[in-house]
């Protein structure tokens, strides 16, 4: 049975509490990330070391700090990224607790599996990017620089910005099948309609890939688009499953 209707101001107060709890969880995660900044930087430099080793160059992983404030800026940036990643399960729990009274019984049954699957898919996408995509992308840029006769020297700020954007972009893109399945389970999306408009979906995925990747070069666009399209096909198959479950 649904909860009784709350006054509008009470909803605003609940929303304020949700924002404060999420901000507190992210802040706590950021403190953990900043306190272990040395280990985090080693983790972020690993794809660069791998790319340098595969390219036959010196595997130093050295990054430059050209501005006085670069180390502080990067530390705060990494802390925020680590805070979001570490606090993700807790944030999802807070959001679910906030949404629960507004959902019917069928929607409530989907909530916990959806959040667990969402956290798993985000982590899977970030790991896929870290172990496969980033070394390939960095090796490509290093090889392109050598082809132009340029020496590769990246700043700490530009490198960490690129890496964090790629990790976040792939983590979010891996949520696509889950979103499609949930919309199908709720009766808002039909497999037949999506399959009939596959060409339009390809264009939309290209736009999304162009927006998510930090650079607009064709190589990185392809690195994002190819797995994104594969995830779209997985989501399409999941839509068929959702329709069969709904009709069972």
Provide tags for this entry:
9 helices; 248 residues; 80% helix; flat; mainly alpha
Describe this structure in words.
With 248 residues, the protein is an all-alpha fold. Helix content is 80%, strand content 0%. The radius of gyration is 21 Å and the shape is flat.
Element layout with pairings:
Elements: H1 8-35, H2 37-54, H3 70-99, H4 105-147, H5 156-173, H6 176-185, H7 191-196, H8 198-212, H9 218-247
Secondary structure category: mainly alpha
| Unreliable segments of 5+ consecutive residues | none
How widely separated are the two ends? Answer: 24 Å
Quaternary state reads single chain
Cα-atom radius of gyration: 21 Å
Q: What is the N-to-C order of secondary-structure elements (H for helix, E for strand)?
A: HHHHHHHHH
Secondary structure: number of strands: 0
Mean pLDDT value: 81
Largest sheet: none
The shape, in one word, is: flat
Instruction: Please report which band the strand proportion falls in: under 5%, 5-15%, 15-25%, 25-35%, 35-45% or over 45%.
Output: under 5%
């Amino acid at each position: 049975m649904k909860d009784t209707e709350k006054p509008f101001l009470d909803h605003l107060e609940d929303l304020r509490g949700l924002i404060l709890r999420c901000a507190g969880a992210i802040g706590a995660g950021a403190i953990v990330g900043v306190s272990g900044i040395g280990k985090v930087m080693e983790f972020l430099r690993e794809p660069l070391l791998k790319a340098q080793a595969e390219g036959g160059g010196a595997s130093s992983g050295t990054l430059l700090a050209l501005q006085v404030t670069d180390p502080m800026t990067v530390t705060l940036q990494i802390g925020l990224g680590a805070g979001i990643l570490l606090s993700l399960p807790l944030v999802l729990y807070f959001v679910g607790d906030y949404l629960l009274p507004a959902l019917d019984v069928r929607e409530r049954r989907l909530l916990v599996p959806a959040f667990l699957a969402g956290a798993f898919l985000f982590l899977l996408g970030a790991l896929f990017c870290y172990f496969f995509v980033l070394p390939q992308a960095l090796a490509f840029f290093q090889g392109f620089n050598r082809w132009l006769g340029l020496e590769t020297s990246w700043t700490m700020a530009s490198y960490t910005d690129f890496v964090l954007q790629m990790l976040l972009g792939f983590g979010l893109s891996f949520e696509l099948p889950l979103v499609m399945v949930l919309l199908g389970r709720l009766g808002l999306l039909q497999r037949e309609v999506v399959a009939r408009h596959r060409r339009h979906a390809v264009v939309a995925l290209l736009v999304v890939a162009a927006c998510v990747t930090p650079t607009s070069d064709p190589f990185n666009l392809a690195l994002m688009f190819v797995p994104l399209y594969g995830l779209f096909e997985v989501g399409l198959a999941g839509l068929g499953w959702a329709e069969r479950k709904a009709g069972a």
